[in-house]
DNA sequence: TCTGGGGTCCTAGGACCC
DNA sequence: TCTGGGGTCCTAGGACCC
């Protein structure tokens, strides 16, 4: 907590719906609901006119239609939202170098770096009113709610207090007086499950939280959250405004109108999703080691399976093969409502691009268009150069096998997946390729079976 | 014919290593 | 031929946020 109110939180009001009303004047003043419009859709954003009817974010679209049949139901135009968000973030960065976006419609701004004459309440209040005016200008009329306080935590709470189109500045020294009467659910990170656990412990308000020892909170809700609650209940929060937070994962998922039962159709979907993940990774210069498959069953139970490669990849065919192999190990009888593919364990460098020539890059692109058929020219080359895995039989979990020339084959494996990479003493690690363990393409490289040892 | 999609963070258990 | 402990990595699941 700082001595002055120098953390600003800005939140665009009913953002997606507001962009739609801006771009389509006939929708202004009318209920607008943006979200999934299919049978299994949910509401992403409801305009304030729709909220009057009880429509809320995360509500099923079916229920929203029942409550507000006359609203306009739209599936969303993310290019427009991104462009509008970009305009706002650019504006914020022009007033302070320390801007931390939380999503398309939200950001923290550190006012200590904003060059204000001072950080007294009247000064930051005037600054925020001017900023809100400029947000309206650069967005074509969208309103923003702003909170300013001595910490991120309180700035975010403050921006919520006078939505929409509001401004709240929390004067230093008044933080706990504001906070203590509030319900525990105002604390970011306290959702329905935690509210219930705290309720069972007799804790409802922030003031009640503040009277409990850290040990007891940790016992109730776990170490990390317990420690956080102990501090936040006292308005203690020294988290910095951090610009440029790094991406940790990239994923694509889809829920289908009718449960999927055809394995071949599921495989085709997973391969397509892997291609989309790879495309987005390449567009952002990312590569990663862990490929995950997410499956939501007909009864909403959700399974995840993952497999970690020895080196990062952004190759569509590699991601697709791993995802398919993970799917192969799951029992999907009964039907599947959601499938998803993701990559995590990201490196911020793209291994192959560091060394690739123009023609090698073309080869990589060509492989992307052919996710079904494994192609192993690198391994063939290595084989022809005399490299062999030596003296051992492949088994799941085996790591690196070197030949007498120091050439290595990486065999990482598990859950029916074999991952292969070649490297030599002279070259950097080559591309990673992965296959289902029973893929016939692997057979030619599988080392000969050793004679079993003599029993003693 | 309840219950999205894109993320982040945390927990817990097992393997493995020192 | 018994007994630990800590650290790291990986996996699976879950809570939460917008």
From TrEMBL:
Residues 7-191 form the UmuC domain. Pfam families: IMS, IMS_C, IMS_HHH_1. It is an enzyme of class 2 (transferase). The record marks 16 as: Substrate discrimination. The active site is at residue 106. GO terms for biological process: DNA repair; DNA-templated DNA replication; error-prone translesion synthesis; SOS response. One of its GO terms (molecular function) is DNA-directed DNA polymerase activity. Mg(2+) binds at residues 11, 105. Residues 424-456 are annotated as: Disordered. It is found in: Cytoplasm. Its cofactor is Mg(2+). Its EC number is 2.7.7.7. The keyword Magnesium applies. The keyword DNA damage applies. GO terms for cellular component: cytosol. HAMAP family: DNApol_IV. Belongs to the DNA polymerase type-Y family. Monomer. Poorly processive, error-prone DNA polymerase involved in untargeted mutagenesis. Copies undamaged DNA at stalled replication forks, which arise in vivo from mismatched or misaligned primer ends. These misaligned primers can be extended by PolIV. Exhibits no 3'-5' exonuclease (proofreading) activity. May be involved in translesional synthesis, in conjunction with the beta clamp from PolIII. This is DNA polymerase IV. The gene is dinB.
């Amino acid at each position: 907590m700082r001595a002055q109110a120098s953390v600003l939180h800005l939140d665009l009001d009913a953002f997606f719906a507001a962009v739609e009303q801006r771009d389509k004047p006939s929708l202004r003043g009318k209920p607008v609901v943006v979200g999934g419009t299919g049978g299994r859709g949910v509401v992403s954003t409801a305009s304030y006119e729709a909220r009057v009817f009880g429509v809320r974010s995360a509500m099923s679209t079916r229920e929203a239609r029942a409550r507000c049949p006359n609203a306009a139901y739209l599936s969303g135009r993310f290019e427009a939202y991104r462009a509008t968000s970009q305009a706002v973030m650019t504006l914020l960065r022009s007033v302070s170098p320390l801007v931390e976006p939380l999503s398309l419609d939200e950001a923290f701004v550190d006012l200590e770096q904003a060059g204000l004459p001072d950080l007294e309440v009247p000064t930051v209040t005037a600054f925020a009113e001017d900023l809100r005016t400029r947000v309206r200008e650069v967005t074509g009329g969208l309103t923003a709610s702003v909170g300013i306080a001595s910490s991120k935590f309180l700035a975010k709470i403050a921006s919520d207090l006078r939505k929409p189109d509001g401004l709240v500045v929390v004067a230093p020294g008044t933080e706990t007086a504001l906070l203590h009467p509030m319900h525990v659910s105002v604390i970011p990170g306290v959702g329905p499950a935690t509210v219930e656990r705290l309720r069972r412990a007799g804790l409802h308000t922030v003031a009640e939280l503040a009277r409990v020892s850290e040990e007891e909170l940790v016992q109730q809700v776990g170490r990390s959250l317990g420690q956080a609650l102990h501090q936040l209940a006292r308005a203690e929060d020294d988290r910095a405004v951090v610009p440029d937070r790094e991406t940790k994962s990239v994923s694509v998922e889809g829920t289908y109108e009718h449960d999927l039962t055809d394995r071949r159709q599921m495989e085709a979907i997973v391969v397509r999703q892997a291609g989309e993940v790879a495309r987005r990774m390449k567009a952002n210069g990312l590569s990663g080691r862990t490929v995950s498959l997410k499956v939501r069953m007909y009864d909403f139970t959700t399974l995840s399976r993952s497999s970690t490669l020895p080196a990062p990849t952004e190759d569509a065919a590699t991601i697709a093969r791993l995802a398919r192999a993970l799917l192969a190990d799951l029992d999907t009888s009964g039907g599947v409502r959601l499938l998803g593919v993701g990559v995590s364990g990201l490196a911020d460098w793209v291994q192959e691009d560091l060394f690739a020539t123009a023609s090698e890059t073309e080869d990589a692109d060509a492989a992307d268009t052919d996710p079904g058929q494994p192609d192993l020219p690198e391994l063939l080359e290595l084989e022809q150069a005399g490299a062999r895995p030596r003296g051992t039989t492949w088994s799941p979990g085996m790591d690196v096998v070197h030949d007498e020339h120091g050439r290595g084959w990486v065999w990482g494996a598990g859950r029916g997946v074999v991952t292969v990479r070649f490297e030599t003493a002279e070259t950097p690690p080559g591309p990673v390729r992965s296959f289902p363990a029973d893929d016939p393409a692997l057979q030619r490289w599988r080392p000969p079976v050793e004679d079993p040892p003599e029993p003693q």
